[in-house]
Amino acid sequence: MAARRGRGRGVRVALWATAIVVVLLVVAQLLLPRLAAHTVRQRVGRYGPVLSAHVSAFPAFELLWGHAQSASVHTGPLRMTSSQASELLWSARGIDSVDLSASSLLVEPLRLEQLNMRKRQHEVHLLATITLADLRAAMPAGVKLQALNSTGEGPLEVTVGGELFGLSASVVAVVQAAEGKLVAAPRGLSLGGLTQITLFSDPHLHVESATFTPLPGAAQSWRLNLRATQA
Fold first, then answer.
1. Of 22, 102, 125, 225, which residue is most buried, by most CB within 10 angstroms?
2. Hey, which residues does 207 pair with through a beta bridge?
3. HSE, side-chain direction, 13 A CA sphere, residue 127
4. Can you tell me the mean pLDDT for 69-79?
5. More confident of the two residues 47 and 17
6. What is the rounded distance in angstroms from the CA atom of residue 47 to the CA atom of residue 218?
7. CB–CB of 63/78 below 8 Å?
8. C-beta atoms surrounding 116 within 10 Å
9. What is the average pLDDT score of the chain?
10. What is the DSSP string of the chain?
């Protein structure tokens, strides 16, 4: 009889323990993603207004180790240095799917508008609008820039004047991906880093391609389509 009561007590203890574990898992599933979204808001909010942030993880305990299935962030204008942008993107390396939209993004010295960035595992795809004024602002002081006629998708060709590349005459430069960076380099003249201006680079990001498509009805504006791999 005593043995039967002991077994019954053991079963009740096991059931209570199971119920407590289930409750803890449910609470964690509800709270941890919200806490993670709050952390994302704070981290991105250093650089501009965050309109919404969402993080999804199952099981939610993965968030304790920096892993998640997805995260989405929608912001107003953002401004940061290239090192800050690199740190921010690197902090999301444990998230399988990341979607970021911003009304504008200034990664000094380059400014992009209507930005949409998508990260899937290690692949990064960025779509943004860039204007001739943005490109001019990213150039060194004293450099004059004019865009050439562009009718289709591809690298962007511009005329560069002033003291640049060791030349005082105007040259045609191409804005494109090179050596894992987004650069402007003179067409037909290649001396490595000596003859190019780096517009964007990230030690954890290898730029694979960058194409520009003229925007109809928007003078001297292009849609930038950039693809990269996170190292």
1. 102
2. 180, 228
3. 6
4. 94
5. 47
6. 28
7. no
8. 12
9. 80
10. -HHHHHHHHHHHHHHHHHHHHHHHHHHHHHHHHHHHHHHHHHHHHTSS-EEEEEEE-SSGGGGGGT-EEEEEEEEEEEEE-HHHHHHHHHTTTTEEEEEEEEEEEEETTEEEEEEEEEEETTEEEEEEEEEHHHHHHHSPTT-EEEEPP--SSBPEEEEEESSBTTBSS-EEEEEEEETBEEEEEETT--BTBTT-EEEE-BTTEEEEEEEEEEPTT-TTEEEEEEEEEE-
Residue 9: Cβ-neighbour burial (10 angstroms; 0-12, 13-18, 19+): exposed
- Sign of the Cα torsion 161, 167, 169, 175 reads negative
* 3 vs 113: which has the higher pLDDT: 113
Q: Percent of the chain at pLDDT above 90?
A: 34
Query: How far is residue 87 CA from its own chain's centroid?
Result: 10
- Which residues, other chains included, contact 82 with Cβ-Cβ below 8 Å and sequence gap of 6+? 107, 108, 200, 201, 202
Diameter over CA atoms, the chain:
103
